[in-house]
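TEACHING EXERCISE
Course module: macromolecular assemblies
Task: Read the component lines below, then compare them to the predicted structure of the full complex.
Student: A.B.
Group: 4
Components provided:
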Amino acid sequence: MNSDPVVSFKNVGKHFDGNWVFRGLSLDLPSSQVVAIVGESGSGKTTLLQLINGILRANEGSVEVMGDPVPETGLERFRRGIGYAVQGGGLFPHLTVYRNVTLLAQLEKWEQEKSQDRYSELLEMVGLDPELRGRYPYQLSGGQQHRVSLCRALMLRPKILLLDEPFSAIDPMSRGEIHRQFTELRQQEKVSAFLVTHDLREAVALGQYLVVMASGNVVQHGTTQNIIENPEKDYVARLLETYL
Amino acid sequence: MKRLGFKCILVLPLFLSFPSTIASEGTLTDPIVVASKIFPESYFLAELISQMLEAEGYVVARKFGLGGTKVCNEALRRDEIDVYPEYTGTIQAVILELDYPLSLEEINARFKEFDIEGVPTFGFNNTYAMSVRRSMSEELNLTKISQLVNHPELKYGVTHEFLEREDGWPKLEEVYGLKSRPEGMQHELALRAVANGDIDVTDGYGTDAKIIEYDLVVLEDDKSVFPIYMAIPLIRSDLSAPIKKAIAGAAGKIDEALMIQLNGEIVIKGRTFASVADEFLASIDIDPISENVDTRRGGKLTANVVRHLELTGIALLAAVVIGLLVSIAVYRVTWLSRSVVYLCGLMQTIPSIALLALMIPLLGIGMKPAIVALFLYSLLPIVRNTVISLSTTDPLLVRIAEAMGMSQLERLRYVLVPLAMPSIFAGIRTSAVICIGTATLAAFIGAGGLGDPIVTGLALDDTGLILQGAIPAAILAIATELVFEGLERLLVPGHLKVFGTTKSNQAAEAT
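Instructor-supplied answer key:
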């Protein structure tokens, strides 16, 4: 495990039309782990995530990714090093499974064979039949769509993976299965994952490191173990009691 | 779209080579262009001029059935045509907007700056005329309008326009001291009413063939109330002296009675302009090299269809390319895209005839202005559909594409445009059908196409001829629909049409 933080928030402030989501937020997040950012809706967790790949820009302070601030120009290149998957899968409805997964590889001008191999490798890792290649998203189940979405995010072997409530629309029966596959996948790919979720159980199940947020503040952050054993604030303690 | 593009590359050289102005007039490469307005007498006189020129060995291009005085005169000024038949009264009132009659010399002096001049008249005056039943004229010995005052018992029925026009009934009443109160009625009904004795006097045009059909007599305007409408060929001044001489070949040879008879041959007996002109020229010892050009047919079907496809194909291709580029350039800026959509909407509110007419001062007549007008007409559905569908793409998908590291162009190419495709296609389809319909009007400015037989048929009140243009145009419109439907099936995945462009994710989630 690397001791240098993979993402650092330095005194970051972000507002929308004058309404501050947070101000003066400083946070170092460790690499090669699953960092689960947990909180209620409106707590600012998605904003935090979107500051990492520059979809949103900080109004104050700076966000550093792997030691460098999020760049002003050349964002495309920067973002291709960061996988991104969201709730509902967000697959392109006009593209087949294969084209969805390999779109970025095509833009990167990968050779056909290399794309093909990587595609099969990823689909097998998430327990999908690579022969789904010709299907359109609407022909897949919700769970299948999420798996394909994960594969698309990992296609270019990014160092960082951002996940915004990726599993929340999946029925509880299959969630355990997909959680297990995700954990394996992450370990194999050695990617630093940042997972936004409102589900503390999911955060604890998947994250080795937790960031607990409430109304724009980071209430507590630390290893999952540490937080469960030593909740610093009443809010965290209550949260743990309610959900676990 | 690729196929359309290919087709247009094929026809583009044709389009660019029109009109050529290098060679001297009257040769194969640069024929003398003879035009007419859209009523039978104008067609006939134009055909007459054409045959007189051909008799002298010149090559003639017939551009008959242009949509009215303004179109013909503007085309002549721009040297797009070389000659067309006009009336002195129209020149005075409509073109020069004067309220006093002009001699040929005065007309020529005023037209000098436009390089236009008049040729001595054919010899007849097609002005307003008052006509009565022949039997009654003989019985009462009525030959002049001034005699009407002696017969206050006669009943009058005239067109509403004549009743209102200052140079119509009011002037007639004043100058001749007529006391009767005329009924306003439709022209055809009035003629029939005179014929069967329901009324006794009506107005009309001096050379109207109906005068023969209903066996009427035109009364002489012995106090010269009505303006003079002498028929003259208006020509480009720069035509050579021999050409001018040929055009003047029938000067003074046709009086009112003869013109009524000639009109009757065409309108009542249904003979072709060409055969009537040919027969008349033979009577004045001009022997045209008869090519048997049947100007009633409005050209060959295939040629009309091909021209129609050229007009719509080029206009539509341009509208697709420019419409898409403009939409892509503006869709992200709300006020800009709104302005563009409004502007395109504005084009569509201009009646198609007016839009075509507006093009003439800028681009003359023929295919060029027609294509530009059709292009402007086709823009709205394409631009509106494209702008709306691009700017309403599912924001989640747009964000994902951005977050994945796709550039602006890549997002458009791989995500936004493909997702907007069903809607863009619908727009293009609508445009194509509008274009095919509107292109029939292009005949009014001499662009040809399936409008040619329609325009000629309208002028001659010949339903068969109208259908020769209308039916192929309708078939073409349906065929276009089908072609685009096929293209859409090929290019757009089926489920996008079922669920709409942005709904497929939610729809899938529900499974």
